[in-house]
Write a structure and sequence with these properties.
The complex is a heterodimer of chains A (180) and B (285). Chain A is of the alpha+beta class. Chain A is built from five helices and five strands; from the N terminus they run ββαβββαααα. In chain A, helix 2 crosses helix 5. Chain A is globular. Chain B has 285 residues and is an alpha+beta fold. Chain B contains ten helices and 14 strands. In chain B, strands 4-5-10-6-7 form a five-stranded antiparallel beta sheet, covered by helices on one side. In chain B, a hairpin with a 5-residue loop joins strand 12 and strand 13. Chain B is globular and about 60 Å long. The chains are: A alpha+beta (180), B alpha+beta (285).
């Protein structure tokens, strides 16, 4: 039996009838045709399906569509403003961060959530902020550079949809007693 | 994913009634980061999934309540990491929460879900154990508190009764300055589960509580009342000897793919010594 879900996706009010066992990822891709968000591991390890829900980045494969009822969601399609790319997208292009490109929507969305909470992250904060996004082409270096570049250009000011601060692991004292 | 009915009750009584309906397969949904994976892989087949996020009693907050710090059932790992009081007075728990999964996982995963899943490798379990945490469980018979050390049985099994739900996790307020630390050994930083996880808390009165996980069917809590582990002047040999006695209950699985028993036991010693030194430093600072 389907359920009615009212959500705001990339600033636009949407109403969807979905099966309760369908994930937010399925709702975005299959019902709303927003296929920028990628399906990959389906166990919350790769981050290809990352979207921002009420200001916090989540793996949309591990959230039911019905759980998003009433939420404001930002997907990769919501980063650009019309023809104007998000500074993160510009930076990803400039540094050659996209290799095969499959992980890039998730990387961009995670980076967007990170910069909103920490406008000028350290390298360690970028690494931690994007630790939930795997790149099988191993383009990590260029991805990190892109986030640094975007941050330098003040990319944090752009996000219209989120409000919460990102997680700042680096500020917890001595978080690593064990060898990693 | 296999189909199920979805309920999102606003009232606790309705949630408990729903838990009791049918064949006992109903599952509560909080963060979903474990539950949805297990439904998808077919290891559980609930007829009904009960989303508890609409229930006022299952709050997403951290507050003081009658000498205890109460963490509501909907509180996420990210919430724990951000909370000033947790970072100040329960730093080992903040550190443990920071090790869970990734940002995306921590934004959804709840503390209550982490302990109900009862993984021997649960990142938050050792920290909660050394802080003397208890679980507030609610069922048709009413509310009860379960000391966390009496909560874990083995992987996936707790002493919760059928139909019971976790409403909150509580830790006693600190009685004075203590030194505590969380330590973890894993194959790589990121999503990997812990090969060894450990927490140490040294109380102002010289009692040291130590908890270790991922080296047996459930996390273990032990106490050092001799003062050796709290004594900054104690020799490494004395500490090592004391730790060996305390680690006697470690029995790592020989079939685990993450690490061999020998490696885990060796790492437990190394991490124990480092963690005790770090906890002493914090107690003194």
């Amino acid at each position: 039996m389907t359920m009615r879900v009212e959500v705001t996706v990339n600033g636009r009010q949407r109403s969807v009838d979905i099966e309760p066992h369908h994930t937010l990822l399925e709702m975005l891709r299959d019902d709303l045709a927003l296929t920028g968000t990628k399906e990959c591991c389906l166990v919350g390890e790769c981050g290809a399906c990352t979207v921002i829900v009420d200001g916090e980045s989540v793996d949309s494969c591990l959230m039911l569509g019905v759980e998003a009822s009433g939420a404001a969601i930002t997907t990769v399609e919501g980063l650009a403003a019309g023809d104007r790319l998000d500074p993160l997208q510009e930076a990803f292009l400039e540094t050659g961060a996209a290799q095969c490109g499959f992980c890039i929507p998730g990387q961009l969305v995670s980076a967007r959530a990170l910069l909103h909470g920490v406008p000028h992250p350290t390298r360690a904060e970028i690494e931690e902020g994007l630790a939930g996004n795997l790149c099988r082409c191993a383009g990590y270096e260029q991805i990190m550079e892109a986030v640094e570049l975007a941050a330098k250009r003040g990319a944090a000011a752009r996000e219209p949809h989120s409000s919460r601060v990102a997680t700042d692991v680096a500020s917890i004292p001595d978080a690593q007693v064990a060898p990693q | 994913m296999r189909a199920f009915a979805y309920e999102r009750p606003d009232r606790l009584a309705d949630a408990l009634a729903l838990m009791a309906v049918g064949d006992g397969s109903a599952r509560p949904l909080a963060g979903g980061t474990d539950l949805l994976i297990r439904i998808r892989d077919g290891s559980i087949r609930p007829v009904t999934v009960i989303d508890v996020k609409g229930i006022a009693e299952f709050s997403r907050d951290i507050r003081v309540d009658d000498g205890w710090l109460r963490i509501g059932a909907r509180t996420t790992m990210t919430d724990l990491m951000r909370d000033e009081r947790i970072r100040r007075d329960y730093v080992a728990l903040a550190e443990a929460a920071a090790y869970v999964g990734s940002v995306q996982i921590r934004n959804r995963a709840t503390l209550a879900g982490n302990i109900c899943n009862a993984s021997p490798a649960a990142d938050t379990a050792p920290a909660l154990l050394v802080y003397g945490a208890r679980v507030v469980a609610v069922g048709k018979g009413g509310r009860r508190t379960i000391p966390l050390d009496e909560f874990f049985v083995r992987s996936g099994v707790t002493t919760m009764l059928p139909g019971e739900l976790v409403e909150a996790i509580e830790m006693p307020l600190p009685s004075g300055r203590r030194g505590a630390v969380h330590a973890r050994r894993t194959r790589r930083r990121g999503h990997d589960l812990a090969s060894v996880t450990l927490a140490v808390a040294i109380d102002p009165d010289g009692v040291t509580r130590l908890s270790y996980g991922s080296v047996g069917p459930r996390p273990v809590l032990v106490t050092d009342e001799t003062g050796v582990l709290a004594d900054p002047g104690a020799s490494d040999d004395a500490r090592r000897e004391r730790l060996e006695t305390l680690f006697v209950d470690a029995s790592p699985s020989p079939t685990s793919m993450r690490a061999t028993p020998g490696y885990r036991l060796a790492m437990l010693q190394v991490m124990g010594l480092r963690a005790v030194a770090a906890a002493q430093e914090r107690a003194a600072s």
